[in-house]
Amino acid sequence: MKAINSQTHLDSLNRIIACIPSVENRLTNAGYAYGRLGLSLFYCYCGRYFHDDEYYDKAQDYLNQVLQLLESPDYLNKRKLAYVRELAEVGTFLLFATNNSFLEADVEPLLAYIDEVLTTFMTQKIADDDINEYSGASRAGNYFLIRQHSNPDVRRQLKELATAIENTAHEDSVTGGVYWKGPLYKREGVYLGLANGSAARIMFLSALYRQGIQADRCKIILERAVTYLLAQQQNFPGGAFPMVVGDSPGATPLLLPCGDLGISYALLRASEVLTNDVIQAKALELARVCTLRSSLEETYIRDAQLNYGAAGTALLFDKLGRQTGRPEFQAAANSWYARLPSFATFNNEFAGYESAVNKTYPFTFPCFNEGIIGIGLSLMRYLQVGLPPFDELVYIH
Asked: pTM for this structure?
């Protein structure tokens, strides 16, 4: 991806930077997805982008605030299950920040504590047959997948999760493939995308295989999961795969958590493990067709955010471009990055940006996942190619 010289994007970034101090009080939770750790992440990138140590000082200040929150018994009692999710985000952030030399600190004692808490959490969730990415064992698993590079001992937890993923799979009598059931968006069903669906399992199993964790078992279950997923493909150009098995053919979102683009990425990673040129060709063609979709009706993209908007779509195309070296995917990423400022059409305190969903929550508009922090990071990635990609912060492996 080439660096872009765009005054429009720089102006939009500067407006976000200017408005953050007046809206940061909306972020009261500890994690980076919807909480105060996102502010530390944002200022880490600002420090690198502008070569300004004052931003790093701010990043450290917000990190210290988060650590104080986590030490509060009142916060633990208030947040309960959310506390564990946020602890996983803190661990992921610390690994990301130190690996990319954003912050210099001895984080090992805290990471050891996080390992302990998340191991207990994962063990209980596996016993409950809950491998959900949001509230179940895979929440901890995504952290351990990154953590195992600095602490090989947690590979044991990943082996246990691989077994649990296999044990919770349902066999399809028609294809011989396997799938997983789960709730999402207040609806129970067999989801296929990166949000708690088949693509998420396929991507995760592929990552385990690449790390040599339960490789033989992962390959077997991976092949069967891909078999089932490909059998769900339908002949509809605006939605080759339904969001949920059983949905009528129709247009589906071109978003980070759901839709054809994430499925194409998961299939691509699986094709590498299975050394299967046919699956690789299907994955690349699916992604190529996704590059042709751009309108609201074709994409369901109504805002600039990461989770359900243009920034997340740009991130996935960016990842595909780096993974394959194919210029059409990087061009698609740049096209979506380029459109980010066009969504800043509101007269508000969030630099003109507004999420099209979850508007009633006070944290939505400023946060990383659905607000201007994530948009700001995406603008910086577009403007300066040397900045680290943050795929692993949204658990794209």
From this structure: 0.96
**Of 327, 303, 321, 301, the residue nearest 238 (C-alpha):** 301
Question: How many alpha carbons fall within 13 Å on the CB side of residue 292?
Answer: 8
Average pLDDT of every residue of the chain: 95
pLDDT surpasses 60 at 144: yes
Q: Which long-range contacts (CB under 8 A, 24 or more apart) does 244-253 make?
A: 244/187, 244/189, 244/190, 244/191, 244/192, 245/179, 245/189, 245/190, 245/192, 246/189, 246/190, 251/297, 251/298, 251/300, 252/300, 253/299, 253/300, 253/301, 253/308
| Cα–Cα distance, 18 to 372 (Å, whole number) | 11
Candidates 143, 47, 150, 24; CA nearest to 102 is 47
| Interval 21-50: pLDDT, tens | 999 999 999 999 999 999 999 999 999 999
Report the half-sphere exposure of 171 (CA within 13 A, side-chain side): 3
Which residues are paired to 189 by β-bridges? 182
Picking from 377, 235, 372, the residue whose alpha carbon sits closest to that of residue 303 is 372
What's the gap between Cα 110 and its chain centre?
Answer: 23
Q: Name residue, tokens 């947040």.
A: 79
Can you state the percent helix, strand and coil of the chain, rounding each to 5? 60, 5, 35
Which tens digits make up the pLDDT trace of 354-372?
999 999 999 999 999 999 9
Q: What gap in Å lies between CA 104 and CA 95, rounded to an integer?
A: 11
At 81 the pLDDT is 75
Q: What is the C-alpha end-to-end distance of the chain, expressed in Å?
A: 19
Q: From 368, 301, 369, select the one nearest 340 (Cα to Cα).
A: 301
CA of residue 278 relative to chain centroid, distance: 27
